[in-house]
Amino acid sequence: MTQPPSSQPPQGGFGAPQDKPQQPPAQPPGPPAQPPQMPAAPPTPPARPPQAPPAPPAGQPGYGYPQAPGQQPGYGYPAAPPPQPGYGYPGQPPTQPNPYAGTPQPGYGHPGQPPYPGQAQYPGAPTPPQGGGKNPFKGRPAMIVAAAVAGLLVIGGGVYLATSGGGDDKKPVADKSHSAAPSGSPSVDQGDGKGTGRAGSDGGINSGIKPGEAPVWLLENETPLTQNGAEQYGPWRLGDVVVKAMYKEVVGYGAADGKQKWKVPLDTPICGAPHDTTADGKIVFGVEESNDKNAKCNQLQMVDLAAAKAGWKAPVPSENAFDIMVSFDMAISGNTVALARMGGASGFSVTDGKKLYGTPKTGNCRSDAFAGGPKLISVGTCTDPNNSGADAPQSELLQELDPATGKSKWNYQYEKGWSIRRIYSMDPLVVYATNKDKKTWNIATFTADGKIRSQVDSKSQLTAKCSGFGIVDRQLQDCSGTAADADTLYISTEGKDSGELGVGRTNDVVAIDLGTGKEKWHASAPKGRTMEPIAVEGGKVVLYVEPGIDEQAAAIATVPTGGGTPQITLQSPSAAVDTEQNFYSPHITWAGGRVFVLNGRVNSPKGDKKDHALLSFGK
Predict the structure, then answer these.
(1) Higher local confidence (pLDDT), 577 or 21
(2) Distance between alpha carbon 454 and the CA centroid of its chain, in Å?
(3) Residue that wins the pLDDT comparison between 557 and 481
(4) Measuring CA to CA, which residue among 513, 458, 459, 457 is closest to residue 490?
């Protein structure tokens, strides 16, 4: 498509997505000089937020959230609110204490500051990082070099979750004609799912298993690592194999028993991985150029997971003088792997590693984050050519790209101040954004051609469990706790205290109509438990029930997509509860009738002390 003139917004409209006001406003704000088109005037916002509200509607979008257009919105117009705007943020569930003090988990906001009075965290917001949630390097070349040097000390790369985003996602199936021979490293017997699992103080995670309960298998990290440990990537299931990647190895295990089937060793550490593989089981990792402490993340390594072997390796050329490669934010769609990093982005062929295009640009906007799978979605930062200072406000552009060419199929520009944080579903496309200054959030659903289909209008305190270790990477697809089908988004609420001694927190799963943005139904977790949707299949929402207190081990439940009471379908043994609770920032995925829980990060083994790496139970 042709690039729009700098004085005009890209195709799709300027400003956050906009809803029509539900009634005529009494007093619209003054319009900017010469707007391209005059929309229906939005209501005047409150003069200021209430001071220390005792109980704000934390789950409700606040004033100025993205709005669905009937007409083309005028340049710079504020967003129309839903009824009863609130100032709180949807909540973030409590997380396990961070055992990896050397690698803090960043997210949206500022460290060391209490939240606003009565305010919960954004949905899916990890622990706040230094410098705020908006990438401080975007559009600020003068700051990049110094910030990158400091970033080398704290960045741990990108973490994401391989969770199901919809009911009809296709999992790649391994080509069984390829015999995946193990490498020369010894195969570790991780159990067959019928024994007691790894030995522990209680005799094993399956000790005392009751009839009908699902045996658990557990892997512990056996790989010596550097002082800071290493992130884990995955898991990906291909046929009867589940794969994880970590440090300098990609390993396949039997999905049913956890026994190692093969290992692909890498020469240098992994520094990025996509959420998805190709349809035939190929994946491309970002790897460091050497084993030096401050090595750049500027290489790509393809691994054929179906054949259990490494393929091509290729360097990533710099796009500009500020393209400082610390870690990659990666996505695969079709036969293309797209990667973003501080200062640049590019696309490469998964087949042979050839570069297909450099940083995708639309007008004054450049891509700096990707999400993949059935389509390639880009989030980009837009600069104002008339105001390019370090503190100049910026807007962000959401667009679908042609994976093969990097050209925009459609785009939608959010108002200045909005930050696109996560993508909860790729098909249909469901996007979560926040506005730090206005203390508001928004969840919007887009049509296939980039128009606003609906926006969530909920008073519930919605939340999604998200990870993210790198201050540079957005990691758009790193959330669990959400699932979607063609017409409905399923999302958790924040856990609440039961008020009973010895009874844990509990929450609900909420179904949101993607046609209207309204709530359809709630389903409550078992007493003293919390749960989150992880997939939709066979007309049912699959729920991961978190381990609780008093020997309440993790379970899988289902609820019909039309609503109802969740029913436990898989229950792990009570002896596994302590193990299940000891996973930090876990990646949870459901595939082939089994749940896989991958620890987000592991440390080097020390004597008999070994970090849990991967756990599974199921059919």
Answers:
(1) 577
(2) 21
(3) 557
(4) 513
Domains of the chain: 141-618 (2.130.10.10)
Q: Are 307 and 332 in contact (CB under 8 A)?
A: no
CB contact set of 595 (below 8 Å; sequence gap of 6+): 534, 544, 554, 556, 570, 588, 589, 616, 617, 618
Gap between the Cα atoms of 323 and 311, Å rounded: 26
Nearest C-alpha neighbor of 433 from the set 484, 465, 397: 397
Residues 6+ apart with CB under 8 A from 614: 218, 219, 232, 235, 242, 244, 253, 258, 596, 597, 598, 599
CA 535 – CA 485 distance, rounded (Å): 9
Alpha-helix residue ranges (DSSP H) falling in 121-251: 141-154
- What span, in angstroms and rounded, lies between the C-alpha atoms of 69 and 67? 6
Distance CA 291, CA 269 (A): 7
Distance between CA atoms of residues 386 and 121, nearest Å: 34
- Judged by DSSP in three states, 480 sits in strand
In this predicted structure, the answer to whether residue 560 has a pLDDT above a threshold of 70 is yes
Contact 120, 88 (CB under 8 A): yes
Q: What is the number of helices (H) and of strands (E) in the chain? A: 2, 37
Cα separations in angstroms, 559 against 441, 465, 511, 514: 28, 20, 11, 18
The Cα–Cα gap between 428 and 592 comes to 22
Mean pLDDT on 321-340: 92
CA–CA distance, 318 with 617 (Å, rounded to integer): 44
φ and ψ of 145, to 5 deg: -60, -50
What does residue 3 show for φ and ψ, rounded to 5 degrees? Answer: -75, 135
Considering the entire predicted model, what is its pTM?
A: 0.73
Exposure on the CB side of residue 432, measured as CA atoms within 13 A: 26
pLDDT digits (tens, 9 = 90+) for 13-42: 344 454 433 333 333 333 333 333 333 333
8 A C-beta contact, residue 229 and residue 103: yes
